[in-house]
Fold:
Amino acid sequence: MRILIAGMTFSALTLFTNLALAAKPSDENLSFCTTLSELAGSIMKNRQDEVSMDKMMKVITGEPGLEALGAEIIKDAYSTSAFRTKENQKRAVSEFEKSGFRYA
Structure:
């Protein structure tokens, strides 16, 4: 659980930094979008590891700039199934991470 919280905190800090830079040239926009994609992948990984949605929501609660967007990503991740096989879990994480650019 500590690793989950540390990872989410790191992602949030990176996201905040990139939010401030989002209006600048496209390299920074790409960095912002990449961060969101990585955050989406991390959330889906936790989904596949059967971390409860409640715990995920608690991690983002009170985080300015992350709470609304993070909740949206979490809801999307938890609207899909948690798979049993490692292969299907990896595929779900990879696909969700790739689709994370839609949040940018």
